[in-house]
Amino acid sequence: MVRGIWGSNKHELESKYLDKRSMEGGTGMVAFGEMASLMNSNQSGTDESGLARWTVMEFRGGDGHKTKVLCGYVPCKNSRVDSGTSYQQQRRYFIHKEKKDEEPRTRLLQDLKALLDKWKEDGDRIVVCLDANEDIYKDIIGRTLTDSEGLDMVEAVHASSGQKLGATHFRGSRPIDAVWTTKDVEIANACAMPVGYGAGDHRMFVVDLVKESLVGPQPQAIVRPGARRLNSKIPTSLRNYNRTLEELISRHKLREKLQECFDPKMSKEERKERLDKVDEEARQYMLHAEKTCRKLKCGQIPFSPEASLWIKRTQFYRSLLRFLNGKGKNRGNLKRAARRCKIRNPFSLTAEEVGARLRECKNQCKHFKIHGQRYRTQHLNKRLEAAREKQDEEAERRILQIIRRERDRAFWRRLNFSLGKRRGSSVASVQVPDGEGGHVELNSQKEVQEAIWNNVHQSRYHLAEEAPICQGRLRGEFGYNAETLAARQVLAGTYQFGEDFHEGTKRICEAISDISSTVQMDSIDQIITREIWQQKWKKKKEETSSSVSKLHFGHYISGAHSDKISDFHALKTSLALVHGIALKRWSRGLCVMLEKKLGVRLINKLRAILLMEADFNAANKIVFGERMMDNVRKYRLMPDDIFSERAREATDGGLSKALFYDIVNQLRRPAGLASVDAANCYDRVAHAISQMVFQAFGTPKNASNSMHEAIQEMQFFLRTAFGDSTESVGARVELKTQGYMQGNGASPAGWAVVSITIIHAHKKEGHGATFLCPISKRSQKVAGILYVDDTDIIHLNMERVEVMSETHHALQFSLDSWSQLLIATGGSLKPEKCFYYLIGFVWDRQGKWQHVSVEGDEDYGLTVILPDQSRAAIEHLSVNEARITLGMSSCPSGNADSLLAKEKDEASPSPLDLMRDKAMAWVNTAKTSGLNRRDVHFSVERKMWPKISYGLCANSAPYNEIVQAMHKPYHTLCALGGLVRSAKRELRYLDGGFYGFGLPHWGIEAIIASVNKILTHYGCESILGVQYQQSTELFLMELGRSGQPFLENFDLYGHRITDCHVKELWNRLSRFKIQLRLGNIKVAPPREGDNWLIPVFESLGYSKSEVDILNRVRLHQEVLYESDVFGADGRQIDTRYLRLRGQDEKWSDMIFPIQHIPPSHLRLWKTALAQLAPGGRRPRNIGKFTSAGHKLWYWKYDPISDRLFHSDSGWMEAREYVRVTTNGRRNRQSRWVPSPNIVEETSGNLCTVEALGENAVRISSHVAPPPQEVEPETFLEVLKDWGCLWLWKELKISNSSGSGTSSRLEDNGEWIRQAISDGTLMGVTDGSYIRELCPHLCSAALILECQSGGGRLVLTLGEHCLQANAYRGELLGLMALHLLLLSFNKTWPDLGGKVDIYSDCLGALHKVEHLPPGKIPSKCRHSDILKNIMLHCNSLSFKRIFSHVKAHQDDHEDFEAL
To answer: What's the pLDDT at 30?
Structure first.
């Protein structure tokens, strides 16, 4: 074990010194081995001033023994004020920070003496190591430390050898370095090595201190758990265990005893008593079977015949020596043992000769302890060769498994030890508050256990009692397990809430009622069959720790290989679940205390993991973790807000947050985000709420009772460094334990359904944000971004533009709602870990925007509500201050303040800086790991890259900056891997197949990660899918050049786009000439001869800066195309576009980014429009409408009835205008004035009018409206409209002529509609792939046939691709079949009925039938086909019934028998 502490100056402000590769000054220490395990991290650290003048380690032993070791550096005096020396660094700190001009050496001595005096008063032993830069015997520092009336320390070398030190610097003449100790530290020996030993230009000191004088005579040893005899990987052990246990189960008729518990006349208490008795009896039999399954032997020496022989000889000579000393041993047994050990005439040896041979045997054992692995490898290779010669395949397989397992274990142990995350040791001490703002450290076993029980088990696990439902009248109405009439009424939606009913609890109960009305009651199966039990346990990890009963995972994994044992376990567990019984053994848990942060042992910072009984946990995972969550997915109740759901990733949550910031910046609308953290989420759930939530999601009441009652009656045993406790604490009569507990298999699922209920209630009040795509109008309502207990509450109003104060109030109301809902479930927010952003915008005189800073304004403060209904303020962050959530750094501006990250501990660096820091930390660890070059090279891919690439998909840093960031870490890493640093950089990233070093190229990997994410999510109905589409559509509108913005030139037009993730994706694609085409945005000029407006301006000769200005005005005026600024006739400029659009006006059905336009920009806009229509009219008018377009037309003219209509409400209703004639004559100059008539249905031409006063208008022009979309008459028309006609080239349909989409249907395919409606349509599909003939070609065939003889449709198709294989062929057929079904549904939208789908590929059928609703996982094979089916074919109006058919039945069956 190695532990170290180092420090450097944190306060240096001079950039010329910060930018250098190294900084002068700094101190550090490293502890090894046993002393490292005794280091107390809480009292270890660096100089409190942050100048790193010294570093301290405290070593703590038993009975309060502790020693502090200080390593310090006293700087040399330096008069150059602008130098980067340590002396001047400290001087600058005192001047700028403390406003004092102090001499650094004098100040250091004062601070050091005060610190040492305090330690001495506290009774600590002290060791001081200093580079004093002055004579340690004659000058003040040495004399201060050795002053007999002061610190009274001794210089170690002089005290040990009696001689004073000479010069300790290789150019010096005086001793300037030394080690001093207090007199209670025993010095065994000490010396100063000659110059050249060790690192640096000072002499190295070697001081041997007696360990007992530092940490006491008996420092606390860590008690390690005993080894397990039972190991299912050892066939003999597995076989013996199962044989013994099966025999005991049969002999004592345990299954018959369980069957007696089915008696319906038996009360619950009697049934529980009998089950507990059978369970205890079975436990004893299982432990007995383990005890007899195999013998344990010491594993310090790897087994080999040679090592075994010397071990046995050692044992024999010990026995012989005892025999010669008259201590008794059977002579015959000794003779037989001697023959086995190949020892002749043992009884002729004297005691001295036996002792000599025993010493030789011990030396040989030491040799094998060091080199035994080599002999074992030779032994296994010999056994492998022997098995191959005998052609014993089973023995060969098992030996190969052993070789591979031992090799991999040794390799990964070495790698993980050198490069893995440092883990905290077992808890041997804890720190508890002393009531005066400080902490007291407890060290003895009794003190530690009492502190943990009092502060965790009897405090934390009762915090759910603060929920309103657990107090007062509601406790009486609902009880602990909600088995009352009130609970049933809540589930049924008939409960009458009183006026004093807690508002948050009321909303939770209403949400429970809503969910209960959707999900079928008791729809979850609570019985666990033998087959399910075996299936689940065979996949478990045997090394997992279990509970206090000693029935570890190995018992159940081994039992899963026996039908009789598995049947007994499954029956016993099912009995308990069905009858709502918590076995007594299930209510005994072993609590393991872990350090969340290495070395931090504050009682409130420890993580409590409860090791529950293995079978109880397995049952919870099956019933709640799998079946209940399957119900959630079945009824589509899992909101997209939760990113901890299966098939979703934490990086998706971080990317969603980054896209939220991007969308806000692209829209320039005020928004807010509050990051809130639920305190002890798994431990703070009221069981009354939990019980009703579980039942609402279809869990039977008894199954829920079984789990909840086990927790309520839980007895907590404790595992610390002192071992497992024999005492326990638990629930009291008046106060039961609540929550789910970390370590419970039902906890993730339980918290998920509680979160779903909270989100349902929160959204019901209208909180959150609706992401609305401005062009496609796709939308998604989102309450926040959740990953377990980490929650980001968001607010963004897309319906109207808010001011900052409105956004602030809305975010506060949302926080209040979330706080109250969480309190209602028993939870609470942790204010110190919460923060928020308010995002607003201001514009300068040139119309350029920037973020507004309001973080210092008290009027914009936010608070959260606590369980006692008090409020606590949370931190308001600047938009430039980044924070890490879900392991990813982000901030609203996208430009994290690096200086703020250095000054503020909580602040995070930018995503790129964080990535670089991770890389440098890993490289520095690898430098000291001692691994060979091959291991370093291997660990780059397996250890380094997964760590630093996390979150790369959301990193929007420019490509060049990403590439630049990787050079420094790789420069150091190349030397470790054997690559010359002077080699060209390109060799570092060249693949090993081309003789390169094969390091991941950060820029290329960033492109891959971002493209992978957009291909995975774009177009999906998930949050990320809608966010990607919204951001892309805003990008398209801001660019305003074409419907395929990613194909435009980034170098020419990139500066016009708001910095965002999509923009950087465009940059990366453009750099490598990768084409990304959008297929689901229907955007094109709506009139014949029409064009996008910005290219038209560019063609008129405007400069780059002028086009940029025109583009901003265009966005404000809500214009995309040239026709938008013209009237209905397409020749005259629409006069409203000559003025600035008001903020409350809408001229388009799209949502455009907000712009502020100065007068000079409007003048340029008017000039540009005048050039489009010289003299007010175009030379030629724009053509007729081909599509509706996005422009809003507020006027319609009906030439038939000669009526004019005006509407501001989207033509839901309109006001009629009447013509005012002159002398009874009509003409184009006629005035129209409003009439009192309001009409609901209007028709006519699109019209442009000109105002003639306050109410009167005249018609400037009108034009026929765009043609209406024609509904398809046949499914073939739908297929033609989709394109990709090659798919349907070989389509053949009965009762029709021709093939493909050109087929002529006699009855428009009416037989298909009738067959689906009657449920007689059957679809059969099969794939084909022959690697030997065409390795890159797969094909499929399908038949759709009416079983009543209505008709048949046959299709064959093939696909040429590099991914071709048989499985893809099967999926290709299923995709074609689903697209045909979709075309039927497009033709007949309200069609009901069903279609039977058959295939011989069970895997493909299962994959298509159970496609997730949100996205196809990124690593899924053939995701292009699956995504096509998921997006378009998962919401058909008729049912699909999937069935599997065995393949190749015609090989052994007659055709008639098929």
So the answer is: 93
